[in-house]
Write a structure and sequence with these properties.
About 65% of the residues lie in helices and about 0% in strands. It is built from nine helices and no strands. The protein is globular.
């Protein structure tokens, strides 16, 4: 294990986590008016409708799969009676569906931003950074799921990548777990940390602005003006 391994599998994760937390606090305190998706729906809506639905639902499903596969130890699923073979089949099938939906949605959104002039001129440099990093993370993820685990011989990332990630989360990093891991998994993990590093300074902050208050507020009652005037 050399200095590069320590940089990628110890220093980078903690730098990304620190910037992620501090950056969001700074952004919220100094730029609340910029805490938005900067929606371009008025400029083009047809491609946005389908691209946004596929991308967001695919991404949420993929994140759920990552939580199950990385944060939940293999011993826990085994204790519930889920064999490694069954887990592999479930992971490959669900991951493929989620990955394909996410990829198609992302491609539609990227194509829309590139080919629609009115949308393209609103694109900032940080938007380009986000699209590049998202494309890298999503592309490598679907390559792992389909190319490696579904069509290939498979790779037990829960014995290496998952153990390393949990060691970082629980503050006792084990970078040695990433030594010998296939390159595609290493690049995927690195790109994910870089995306996390850039997150607070992009429009991705809108992910934390879910309008939960809408669930409990009273409905809005609309009345016609002419009926009120007629009564008067």
């Amino acid at each position: 294990m050399n200095a590069l391994h320590l940089l990628l599998w110890v220093a980078l994760p903690y730098i990304a986590i620190t910037v992620f937390i501090a950056g969001h606090i700074w952004r919220y305190r100094t730029d609340q008016y910029g805490w938005t998706t900067r929606s371009t729906q008025l400029l083009e809506s047809r491609k946005l409708k389908w691209g946004s639905i596929l991308f967001h639902y695919g991404a949420l499903a993929a994140i759920g799969g990552h939580v199950l596969g990385i944060l939940v130890p293999a011993s826990w699923t085994s204790a519930l009676g889920v064999t490694e073979h069954s887990y592999h089949l479930l992971s490959a099938a669900a991951g493929t569906v989620a990955g394909v939906a996410c990829v198609v949605g992302f491609v539609l959104l990227a194509w829309r931003r590139i080919t629609t002039t009115r949308v393209r001129v609103t694109t900032s440099r940080m938007d380009i950074v986000v699209y590049v990093l998202l494309g890298l993370v999503i592309g490598l993820g679907i390559a792992e799921t389909i190319g490696r685990n579904t069509l290939g011989g498979g790779y037990d990332y829960r014995a290496t990548v998952a153990v390393w990630f949990r060691s970082v989360v629980f503050l006792h990093p084990e970078p040695s777990k990433m030594v010998g891991v296939p390159l595609i998994y290493q690049v995927h993990a690195t790109a994910a940390w870089l995306l996390m590093l850039a997150w607070p300074f992009t429009r991705l902050v809108h992910a934390w602005s879910i309008p939960l208050q809408y669930l409990g507020r009273p409905f809005i009652l609309y009345r016609r003006r002419w009926s009120l005037a007629k009564q008067r």
